Amino acid sequence: MIELRTPREIEEMRPAGRFIADVLLACRDAAKPGVNLLEIDALAHRMIKDRGATSCYIDYHPSFGAMPFGKVICTSVNDAVLHGLPHDYALQDGDLLSLDFAASVDGWVADSALSVVVGQAPDAQRAAGDKKLITTTEEALAAGIAAATVGHKIGDISAAIAEVGHAAGYDINTDFGGHGVGRTMHGDPHVPNDGRAGRGFPLKPGLVIAIEPWFLETTDEIYTDPDGWTLRSADGSRGAHSEHTIAITADGPVVLTER
Ligand code: MG
User: Fold this and answer.
1) Tens digits of residue pLDDT in 126-181
2) Residue 45 host element (H or E)
3) How far is the centre of ligand 1, averaged over its atoms, from the C-alpha of 42 (Å)?
């Protein structure tokens, strides 16, 4: 079921969006060579407790999950791109880290993600490849948000994302994409990262969705790590991910998780 929020409810969602942005920035800044993924998770967990927020991840146990997630942030490194389960790993120079974070504040959820290169890349080719991946996901996100206007349809967002990804030479996986956000983390509608313009649910004022392009360098196939959660590229190539929660309003899209 697709739910629409009143302008007042959208205002009530802003603190959740701001909190998610604050945590992502703090975790991004903490992600230095030598820092363990478990320390980043602990930082996010401390911020959740200090804010009186509720983690969307720690007890998350969907049908495809082997067990409850047990952590509060997704940390996906290099060939991992989504749902990265924080584990005992110290970040190294040149790691491509994607952070995905969702939590509930005052009963409203927001969801956002970013990718960053840790420290210094080992060589110029690697640096250029990672920069292109990250920049393309960010540009695809911006294009998707720009298409999220009243009068358009979900397919217009999907097509705008895919146009940017394809122009950069990336294949696109549509198994995991954006989604409705509200009282819970995942609701209708699904917002695929590829699709046909002019198709799908019509965008109406009050629709709140997460838009989240993610691309892999040389494949669109993924597999699940033995940890039961982390999604990795089939060919070992690197991935990047960029996500915001936005509200569609008569005045245009409002980015609730703006950093
Ligand atoms: Mg997310």
Assistant:
1) 999 999 999 999 999 999 999 999 999 999 999 999 999 999 999 999 999 999 99
2) helix 37-51
3) 18
As a whole number of angstroms, the distance between CA 69 and CA 104 comes to 16
CATH code of domain 7-255: 3.90.230.10
Q: How far is the CA of 177 from the centre of ligand 1 (A)?
A: 9
| Residues, CB within 5 angstroms of ligand 1 (ion) | 100, 111, 113, 243
Distance 239 CA to ligand 1 centre (A): 15
Backbone φ and ψ of 220, nearest 5°: -120, 15
Q: How far does residue 123's CA lie from ligand 1's centre (Å)?
A: 30
Q: What is the pLDDT of residues 101-123, one digit of tens each?
A: 999 999 999 999 999 999 999 89
**Do residues 105 and 51 lie in contact, with contact meaning Cβ atoms separated by under 8 Å?**
yes
Nearest to 9 by CA among 251, 248, 188: 248
Ligand 1 mean position, distance from CA 228 (Å)? 18
For ligand 1, the distance from its centroid to the CA atom of residue 49, given in whole angstroms, is 20
**Cα-to-centroid distance, 244 and ligand 1 (Å):** 8
Return the closest-CA partner of residue 133 out of 113, 147, 111, 115.
Answer: 115
Residues in the chain: 259
Q: 85 and 97 in contact (C-beta within 8 Å)?
A: no
**How many A from CA of 137 to the centre of ligand 1?**
14
**Where are the chain's structural domains?**
7-255
Q: What pTM value is reported for the model? A: 0.97
Q: Are 230 and 159 in contact (CB under 8 A)?
A: no
Structural tokens at position 215:
């691309």
Residue 236 alpha carbon to ligand 1 centre in Å: 22
